[in-house]
Amino acid sequence: MPEQTYDLIVVGGGTSAENVADRAVQGGLTAVIVESELVGGACSYWACMPSKALIRAGTALAAARRVQGAAEAITGQLDAMAAFSRRDTIVHDWSDQSQVDWLESAGIALVRGHGRITGTREVTVTAADGSTTVLTAKHAVALCPGSASLMPAIPGLAEVEPWTSKEATSAQVVPRTLAIIGGGTVATEMATAFTALGSTVTVIARGQLLSGLEPFAGELVAEALRRDGATVLTGVSANSATRTLDGDIAVILSDGRTVTASELLVATGRVPRTGDLGLETVGLPPGHWLQVDDTLLVQGHSPALAGDWLYAVGDVTNRALLTHQGKYQARAAGDVIAARAAGRRVDDAPWGAHVATADHSAVPQVTFTDPEIASVGLTQAAAEKAGYRIRVLDYDLSWLGGATVLADGYVGHARAIVDEDRRVLIGVTFVGQDVAELLHAATIAVVGEVPLERLWHAVPSYPTLSEVWLRLLEEYGRPTGA
């Protein structure tokens, strides 16, 4: 049982893990990553990158068909196998060699195997052949195990062996029919992708689609899916699932209807991968999300946690299950680990260098449906629940000159939420073709708390979708002296 010592041990090898290790090394520490699967994690191989690659073929074709002149040049149909081949290239055929090479170039060690906490600042790694290595951290251990698909307790569901997002994004053939249980991001994105790829898709959602966003976002996506040939069932749930004699999957719904499909995708949420991390060793319950402070220190009352040594980063914190937010947390965590190790001052004030403040109210995200959804900050409902005195600004994106030249019959909508007491934006949502590229401007406005009076002087170029900023300000009313 060989032993090795590093300043920082990172359990997990996804994007959050890579970034926390990299920032710590840049801060003068030594670091090792422990990974049992592929370095780069789910985002690189089974989530962000492959899903967007599959979606892109359909949205690019649809965008061309919405432009007279380009539409007439399209003489064939989407080539699903070519789309799969492009996806395979983007995920490097599920080889992590390039990521391993990057770790080496960054000065980060790698130990392959499953890591478990076995003591204070101690992780024992079990390799595939059963051999073990004990790693000791001089300063910190960061847990970055990520999350896994939630499998709801629906009778018969496990027995029919449904897809999760992992199987959907790595599929090698297009199912003739695909049923999707869920109405969130994974469900709507995969419905968008597989409808375009040629599947007959049925979405089964307990509530409205994308219920965590502004209501009009889910409504526009549902309309688009139906227009493209998918069936969208809302307000119903799956009561049971079984295999039919011909090998299909039959899903019995709460309203008595039956949906039959050749494949079934379950996309009903995520659970933390904390069941076998040795958390009980330090007085924490296994199988739960990890509570952290804004410097990503794990919170708990066990004496084993004394000394500020255990951190958690990424999905496992249950703050914002998004790759870019995990990387944001990782930058803060890596920097603060290095600062504490060197005895430097820790800047843990809100928006300080060593905290993840934006996770609370300024989270940007893009849902890559067609139309796209780009949002940051609070929705109207969330702002009202939080007690803000707000004003809601709405604008139809199809009225913009930029939308007119972008696509024939453009469909889209924008909403901005103004905190009336401070006269700043606290939430923005865009729905429409190509709105993802509007999002960072909105994020800067929200995070920077840019006064509306100053935003009047940020002149948008014409004719682009960015002109929506001027139109939203006009909806609010030009301030005196601006």
UniProtKB/TrEMBL annotation:
Domain Pyridine nucleotide-disulphide oxidoreductase dimerisation, chain residue ranges per copy: 363-469
Keyword Flavoprotein set for record: yes
A family per Pfam: Pyr_redox_2
Keywords: FAD, Flavoprotein, NAD
The protein's required cofactors: FAD
Entry-linked InterPro entries: Class-I_Pyr_Nuc-Dis_Oxidored, FAD/NAD-bd_sf, FAD/NAD-binding_dom, FAD/NAD-linked_Rdtase_dimer_sf, Pyr_nuc-diS_OxRdtase, Pyr_nucl-diS_OxRdtase_dimer
Domain of life: Bacteria
Residue span, FAD/NAD(P)-binding domain: 6-325
Family assignment from sequence similarity: Belongs to the class-I pyridine nucleotide-disulfide oxidoreductase family.
Protein name per UniProt: NAD(P)/FAD-dependent oxidoreductase
Organism of derivation: Leifsonia kafniensis
